[in-house]
Amino acid sequence: MNISTIVMLLVIILLPRLIMLLISKVPFLATLGPVFFCYFLGLLLSWPMKAIGADMTLASDLSSVLVCVAMPLILFSADLPALKKLARPMTVSFSLGTISVIIVAVAAYFVFRNSVHDAANISGMLTGTYTGGTPNMIAIGHGLGTENNRILLLQASDMIGGGIYFFLLISVMAPLLRRILPEYTPVGCSFSHEDTDRYIEAFSGKKQSVKPLRMFITRVGLVMLSLACVAIAMGICLLLPSSYGNTGLAKLGEYTALIMLVVTTLGIALSFVKKVRTAPGSYSSGQYFILMFSVIMGLCFDTSAVSGGLLLLGMLLFIQFGTVILHIITARIFRIDYHTMMITSTAGIFGPAFIIPVAKALRNDEIILPGILCGILGYAIGNYLGIGIAKLLLLFA
User: Fold this and answer.
1) Ramachandran angles phi, psi of 190, nearest 5°
2) CA atoms within 13 A of residue 338's CA, in its CB half-sphere
3) Which residue in 138, 215, 220, 255 has the most C-beta neighbors within 10 A?
4) pTM score
5) Per-residue pLDDT reduced to its tens digit, 299-308
6) Cα–Cα distance measured from residue 344 to residue 340, given in angstroms and rounded to the nearest whole number
C-alpha cells in the first residue's frame, strides 16, 4: 500500500470527526448536516487524491463494507417491543405513511421508467429512504448494485427535496393542516423517564453522559459485534450455489441484496438483547460509518454522471411530495390529528434525528419518543420494503 493510499484512508477515517467538531462549534452549519459536508469535502479532495495516485478501487470496495457494518449498529438501539405502547393513532398514521410511499413509489416507476435510468432501483431506494432514512437508501442501493454515482446524485436530490419539506414542517404546515385534520388530544406518556432520556440523548446529537474510556470500549465491542453480523451474512452467501460459476469472494457480488437483508435481520435480532439495545453509542457509531461512506462517495464521484440529474430530482420530488399528499388524504379519512400525522411523516421521510425539532415546533414533547420509535421501526423495515419493491418492479422492466 503506497503512501497516497494511506493518506486517503486517513482522510476517510478522520474527516467526519473534523466536520462534526466544526458543526458543534458553528451551529448554523448543522442546517446542511454532516452528510452534506462529507460529500462536498470528499468531492473537493477527489482531484488531489487521484493526482497523487490514491487507490480509488480500494476506496470503492471499502464503501460496501462500511454500509454493511453501519446497518446493524443503527438497529442495535431499536426497542421494537416498546412499539406496543404507542397510541393507536400513532401506529395507524405511520402505517398510512408507509403504505403511501409504496403506492407513490410504484406509480413513479411507471411514470419515469422511460426517462430515468434504473427507475426500479430508484423507486426501491426511495421507498426505503421515506420509510426509514439515508442509511436505508445507501444500504438498498448497494444491495441492488446501483452505481455509487447514482446513489450520490439521489442523495443530493434528497437534500434539496428534504430541505424544502423540513422548512414547511417547521413553518406553515401546522397552521394549514389544522384546518384539515383534527386537533391533537393528549394521551399521557406510557414510557419511562429513563427510556425517554436515553432516546432523546442518542438521537439529539448531544454528547452522551458516559465516561470516555467506557464509551470507547463499548463502541469497539459494538463494532466487533456488527462485524460478526457481516461475517455471518457473507458466510451464509458463500455456502449458496453460484449462477455464474464464481467461487470464493467473487460469489458475494451475486448475493449483495441477500447480504444486506441478513445483516439487517441480525441487527434487529440483537436489538432484543437488552445489554446490546441499551449500550450507549450504537446509533452514533453507525452514523459515523455512514459519514465515512459519504466521504468515499465524494472521493469516487464521476462528474460526467451529473447528466440526467434533473430528471432524477423530478422523480424524487414526485415520490416525496406525492407520499406526503397521500398521507394527508388518508389521515383525513382515518381522522388522524395533525400533530400525529406530521410527526409520523417526519419519522418516515427523515428518520429519528429530525423528530425533536419538529416536535419542538409543534410545542408537543409528548410525541417525541413515539416519533423516534416510529423512525427506528422505519429503519428496521426500510431495507426489506425497498429491496422487495425494486425486485417486484424489475419484473415489469
Assistant:
1) -100, 10
2) 17
3) 138
4) 0.89
5) 888 766 666 6
6) 6
